[in-house]
Amino acid sequence: MSTLPPRAGRRCHNAVNPLHSTIYFSPDLGKELGELGVEDSNAVYFATRSAAMGAVGPGTVTAAFYNFNHDHVARHLPAVWSVASPQAVLDARLRAVDTTLRRLLGEEAIASPELAEAAGLALRAAEGCTRHARPLYAAHADLPVPEEPHLAYWHAGALLREHRGDGHIAALLTAGLDPLEALVSHTATGKGMSPRWILSTRGWGGDDWDAACERLRGRGLLDAEGELTEAGIALRTELEEATDRLDAAPYEHLGAAGVERLTELTRGFLFTAASAGAFPEDLMGKG
Fold it and tell me: How far is CA 264 from the centre of its chain?
């Protein structure tokens, strides 16, 4: 029996994950990886997010990331590891996190007791995560926790993000949604990335997108205008509820008061980061 208010863990995740994700939109990450010789933006993403797993090939990344075109991944992996080792990438990523958070939040926030408190709460929540069947979480859980509070907070955000993401993939498989069907149906909720961003970063083409839409229409999940049907809305709702169940442990471990406080603190930091231009304006939406 859960001791948390309904969807409390999801609300916390919906604050922690975007703040953690600022690194993937930061010019500082490209700069750090560029100095290692990794200049393609897709290679930067694949390398920085998968480096915790070691010098893995495209099959591992396609499986763990789920919604990327395998041929797109294979254009960059394993070749990137001949340019920069996983450890060099991890070190560069942490330097970029430091620069990014200092720029977005400001030095006063970086040194604040509130950020140190948020780091402690997030790390405590992560103590409740489990490794089995969660490859991205497990790989990041093997990394050392940085000493500085803002870096420790970002590290904890990586643990919580990947723990939920690994569970979400299990829910997608259970729902019978393939990688692009998952993306199309999420975009149709109005809460996912825009099709332009998906097509430019996930390696799919317009024909792939259209075919996925047709498959969803065939299942009665999408209507002729590309909107979710009642059945589609119900499926996406169940997906999120299933993900909540699979991701309950860290938030139950932290407790209701801790989850509420972590959510409150993180929302404040996220607002500051977003106001500082952390995210592209056209990132989200159906257009």
Answer: 20
The tokens for 20 are 């953690």
- Spell out a b/e string for 59-96, using b for 16 or more CB atoms within 10 Å of the CB, else e: ebbbebbbbbbeebbbebbeebbeebbbebbbebbbbb
Domain range summary for the chain, segments of one domain joined by +: 19-275
**pLDDT tens-digit readout, 189-224:** 998 888 888 998 999 999 999 999 999 999 999 999
d(CA 261, CA 269): 13
219-276 pLDDT, tens digit each? 999 999 999 999 999 999 999 999 999 999 999 999 999 999 999 999 999 999 999 9
Q: Which two tokens mark 141?
A: 């859980």
Residue 35 has, within 13 A of its CA and on its CB side, a CA count of 12
